[in-house]
Amino acid sequence: MEDSMSGVVLEMLWCVLILIVVSWVMIRVCDTVWLKPRRIRSTLSKQGIAGPKSSFFYGNVKQMQSMMEESTVTTTNCPSSSSSDVQPPVSHHQWLRSIFPYIQIWARRYGRMYMFSTGMQQHLLVNEAELIKELKLHKSLDLGKPSYLTKALEPMLGNGIIKANGHHWSFQKKLIAPEFFLHKVKGMVGLMEECTMAMISTWERRLSQSNRLGLAAATLDDHEFMVDQDLRGLSADIISRACFGSYYSQGKNIFAKLRDMQEALSHQSLVFGLPYFRFLPTKSNREIWRLKREVEDLILKVVNKGRQEASQKDLLQMILESAATDSELHQDKRKTERFIVDNCKNIYFAGYETTALSASWTLMLLALHPQWQQRVRAEIIENGSLDNMDKLNQLKTLTMVIQESLRLYAPSVMVAREAFADIKLGDFQLPKGVHVWSFIPELHRDPDNWGPDAGEFKPQRFAGGISEACKYPQMYIPFGYGTRLCIGQTFAMLELKVVLSLLLSRFSFSLSPYYRHSPVYKMLVMPQHGMRLIVKGV
């Protein structure tokens, strides 16, 4: 009898325990899916922040998907240059309709600051000058990169400096940022020049071969280059040599695989946390997982070889030395390897693709504006050999052109932050959990800030520097803002100056009649159909 009673009591205790666990799980789910989003939206709404009406669970996802589909249909039905002998004029703003169209549509309805939802994720778009300034000055670790985005991009970036938050981010910045200070980066000018001259030699051979065919046999295509492909290869060569030294060939292989991974991860839906089932064994996900394993194995092989040959002073070796002196990493081999692997991925993404794209867009703009191309070329020739920082710093016109190109075609389209605690932004109280976004193309084309010619290519606006280029210089953010400003900014600007100055001193560029201006978003803004330019020797 007592045994029977004990069994009943035990069963009841188990039932109570299961009930408590189930109730706790249900409360957590209810809070995550319904209560927390409602609290965030209520807090913002009480402060006068409006936005589109949000539905339970889906938020504004269906509206966003509908707008994206309409935008795709509109873009597809637009006449292209391939259907006519006459090339349509290149617009520097019409293509934005195909990149996050809902951001622009809602901005017209609700202004420069509004909220929207993608199910559990609550977003606040901020394109107000004074608030952008506040964000740039905010130094607390309570404002970081969106955690859900970090998880989605883990195969590509791991938990490296681009996506890390809090103490882990500040720790990585302390070790890595010094390797990109000017006094170290300027020592890479010779490497950049050497790599660029190798590509120039290849171009000159291609031009020479087509010229030997004779004018009667030569065609327009003989001098037409897909310059974005070549510049991508050049940028990979530079960053591979800078990062991996004598093992640069393995570095280029790593970058090729990472670019395949980038293509697989290029979903607009990923950015705002729209449904993206990264755990399911889909064909795309299996490909991503395979590439992730291969990339990490390749990086570790290079790291181990680098440790054995500590005499070479490449970027990877310098980071290894910094890690070796840090007590947090020194005692944990696995943590050290994770630190190196993740940040090698980050250096690829930030220092390879973005620079190649920026150079491509700049050459396209100079091809459209031959008068500026000639001004830059004359400045380069006047300054002679550009083998040191002092000479490069004298290229004021080229600097203006690069800054204007980054204004119109910044590789990134969004700056994203998540509030990890309640924070104050201007007169507003932002609740914990809200995601703050700023749409770079809109900031860089705002006529109230840049003037009525905001949509035009006018490098002279930067003649007095960024501080005098517009009414609110804080709204110029091609490299992000605040404490999370891109640590590779100096490296990128130096590479752009070296590459463009060498190319423009030897070649002239004009737009191919087959070029189709169709920038698309694939984690970065890139030419959908390639950058087709006519290249001629000067």
TrEMBL record:
Main localisation, per the record? Answer: membrane
Segments spanning the bilayer are: 7-27
Provide the alphabetized UniProt keywords. Heme, Iron, Membrane, Metal-binding, Monooxygenase, Oxidoreductase, Transmembrane, Transmembrane helix
User: Where does the record say this protein resides?
Assistant: Membrane
Stated membrane topology is: Single-pass membrane protein
Which cofactor is recorded for it?
Answer: heme
Write out the similarity annotation. Answer: Belongs to the cytochrome P450 family.
User: What is the protein name stated in its UniProt record?
Assistant: Uncharacterized protein
Q: What organism is recorded for this protein? A: Xanthoceras sorbifolium
